[in-house]
Amino acid sequence: MIYIFCAPSGSGKSTMVKHLLTMHPDLFELSVSCTTRPPRGQEVHGKEYYFISVEEFQKRIENDDFIEYQQVYDGLYYGTLKEEIDRIEAAGREVLFDVDVKGGMNLKKILGDKATSIFICPPSVEELRRRLEGRGDTSPEMIEKRLAKASVEMEDMKYFDRVVINDDLTHAFEQLDAIIDENEEDRN
Ligand code: ADP
Ligand code: 5GP
Questions:
Q1: Rounded to the nearest 5 degrees, what angle is found at the Cα of 52, between the Cα atoms of 132 and 2?
Q2: All domains of the chain, ordered by start, with CATH?
Q3: For ligand 2, is residue 107 a contact (CB within 6 Å)?
Q4: Is any ligand 2 atom within 6 A of the Cβ of residue 78?
């Protein structure tokens, strides 16, 4: 099984993915995307992202190396390498994707029943702003861009297999754990 996590930036995708990786370190592995944005804070090449140049990204597009890619924010490319899914499946693990809403919908179209798409819904746009400001790693200008995009992304929530409302964190984890348990039971 493959899980695709999507949400407006700041809604809690990374927090949900980290929860699953902590609870089930031998079951799941995060698909590491390529990006042309520079590392933020303590981010490490090969862990959070493969940080590559625009030239290298374009070469990879020409080689048809990506299962999916998007220009998520002006000028910045993000994409998933086909070889990343092969690498994780060869290790016997289930793949977790943390991608933007359009990318997630494209992945779901390509992967079909192999994947469960999960939309992480913030309690409100005001709370989203508070979380992005609280994270302290995004400029005020970028926060405004992400909030403007959030309103549009929320309209696509209906296309997802499952929705987790990330209001209270403990409650959100419970909703997520229930989805995983249900999927695992269906397969046994
Ligand atoms: P995303 O990966 O979707 O951009 P993050 O997981 O980085 O979002 O979450 C954004 C910020 O909000 C982080 O500082 C995170 O610790 C915080 N956060 C996540 N979920 C909650 C929650 N339920 N209540 C309060 N803060 C939260
Ligand atoms: P950030 O710059 O905050 O790490 O990520 C910005 C957005 O890009 C997030 O919504 C993240 O999920 C998304 N993203 C990360 N990797 C990919 C990818 O491979 N494809 C797509 N479409 N979006 C991605």
A1: 65
A2: 2-187 (3.40.50.300)
A3: no
A4: yes
pLDDT by residue (tens digit) across 16-46? 999 999 999 999 999 999 999 999 888 999 9
Q: Is the pTM of this model over 0.85?
A: yes
The average pLDDT across 89-100 equals 95
What pLDDT, on a 0 to 100 scale, did the predictor assign at position 34? Answer: 98
Tell me the residue type at 188. Answer: N
**End-to-end CA gap in the chain:** 12
Going by their DSSP bridges, the two strands 66-73 and 76-81 should be labelled as antiparallel
**CA-closest residue to ligand 2 atom 7:** 100
CA dist., res. 56 & res. 59, Å (int): 5
Strand partners, 81: 66
Point out the ligand nearest to the CA of residue 32. 2
Structure tokens given for 70: 């998007």
Phi (first) and psi of residue 160, to 5 degrees: -90, 150
The closest-lying atom of ligand 2 relative to the alpha carbon of residue 66 is 19
CA distance 67 to 114: 15
Q: How many residues make up the chain in this entry?
A: 188
CA gap 100, 104 in Å, rounded: 6
Which H/E stretch holds residue 107? helix 101-111
